[in-house]
Write the structure tokens for this entry.
Amino acid sequence: MATPSPVLLSVENLEVNFGAVRALKGISLDVHAGEVVALVGANGAGKSTTLRTISGLSRPRGGRIIFDGKPIGGVAPSRIVSLGIAQSPEGRRLFGGLTVADNLRLGACTRTDKDAILRDSERMFMLFPILKQRLKQLAGTLSGGEQQQLALARALMAAPRLLLLDEPSLGVAPLLVRHIFSALAELKRQGMTMLLVEQNITLALDLADRAYVLRTGQVALSGRSAELRDSERVAQAYLGAAT
Amino acid sequence: MTQLDYILQQIVNAVSLGSLYALVAVGLSIVFGVLKLTNFAHGDVMMVGAFGVALLVGIGVPFPVAVICGIAAAAVAGFLIERIAYRPIRDAPDVARLLTSLAVTYIIENVGILVFTSSPRNFPLPDILNTSWEMSNGAITFTSINLLTIALTFVSLLLLGWFITRTTTGLGMRAAAEDMSAAHLVGLNVNRLIIVAFIVASAYAGLAGILWAAQAGVVQPQMGFTPLLKAFVAAIIGGFGSIAGALVGGYILGALEIFIVAFLPSSVSSYRDAIVFAVLIAFLLVRPGGLLQPNREIKL
């Protein structure tokens, strides 16, 4: 690997069960500091499960998750946020009955540095200007695209060192998808490390430095985005054909 | 006594009764919000508060100090109930949790009966709270305990409003009530939120129990059952799990009960509770999620 920066997140042989079903069958992946890594693959391949397990919502059955040199498999979700991993989950999962401002405030609930929190919310309004106009509005009354921006901002308010993104384009109008991905590109320029799950493979590979293709709970393929973009094997992995 | 005076008197009564229901119902809603558990033991926490005051005043503690201690005792009882009974089965199926909550009720009530017997004992009220004022030449009577109930409810609900809209913990409780996984994902310490929810809800139950006993003049180990049932109805009317809904539901129920007795002939009003529940059923047919949550289904 040509990436000189240190490994920030390392997932080794991760196994996760849902009841009797083995959702992840030994996934290994690395994310280096400052890197954007995409997880792509068909529905049910285990992309969201991987993110949920990194965030501590699902317990690993086997394997290890190392963040910044420390094992975090099975650690409480709130502790994982404090350690520096925030997630913008699939379907946004905003607190619809709370205002935009309160959603942002809860995004920073693990932090105590008031001045820095204030600076970060100003940064959010630069990145997503619409949120500033909507501050007093209930999150549930925003449009899909606005909600997605709020979900990203809420995750960023935790001042994460690693941002997990689950389907940021889902249920968002095409014009706003472009806006959201240009915001993500801006975050990347600023050095944010991201692990991105995205159905839209073109968008994902355009943003990401590297990608892992998951198929039925395993890594089918991995490599630099530019290489994968033209690879027929990616399409095969999606369709579930033998690779 | 003119018609108007009579109506005014009934309004005072309705607000006073509604305040009690609201105080109990908000506690039910707070706990249901974070735990999706119908906490039947909530009524027994009321009893703990009321007994605490009765016992402390009995040994010579000044009434206001006893009230504060009673509320604190209720909060501690709620904390212990969560710790001992509910936390070990937090991830168990709903039926198991519901039955546990009923079991806690029976245990507390029966221990109460063992220790204090089931016969009612006098609730000692200082003279100043036993007085009444008259208006319109005696047409309207305000008892001081009625006024105290209304005033304390008003203040404590304002405090609650501040807590759930201005503090991170309060906002976190509402967030966890809406979406538990999302609450985990933003880094809220859900365990801590549940503990705080029980303490806050139980403190309100304690206050409600003290005021309830003060109005009734007696305490008794099973005194929590009726207010719990009524508060449950109030919370459902308002939208179960919604704190604002519980408040609105409490006052609606209080008004409904008072006005049924006040304005319907006694042959009808003796069926007060039956009428109240019939209204509840009819209401739920129209708005199954309650007043403030029209789109949400209630799941017990």
About this structure: The two ends of chain B are 47 Å apart (CA to CA). The CA atoms of residues 135 and 169 of chain B lie 44 Å apart.
